[in-house]
Amino acid sequence: MQNKFKLNNMRTSVANPPLNAAQILLLQTFSQIKNEQEKDDVQALLLDYYQKKVDNQANQFHFSDEKIDEILNSHLRLSKAIYSL
Hints:
Blueprint: H1 2-15, H2 21-31, H3 36-59, H4 65-73, H5 80-83
């Protein structure tokens, strides 16, 4: 019976790993939010951070606006080789 208990605890710890430092910091920050406006402000900060991160990564490709439009408007199809995987 004791082995079964250990196995169940192991499954729980794998399925629900402990929070990392960033997650704990975010939870502490969110616990201080007092109203909807503060929530919106924190959300805007996070969205701004990730938008800048995506923009920085996209700039590394040096695509022109025309190239981006071409990619967005193209009708790319997966090759049959990918379907066979």
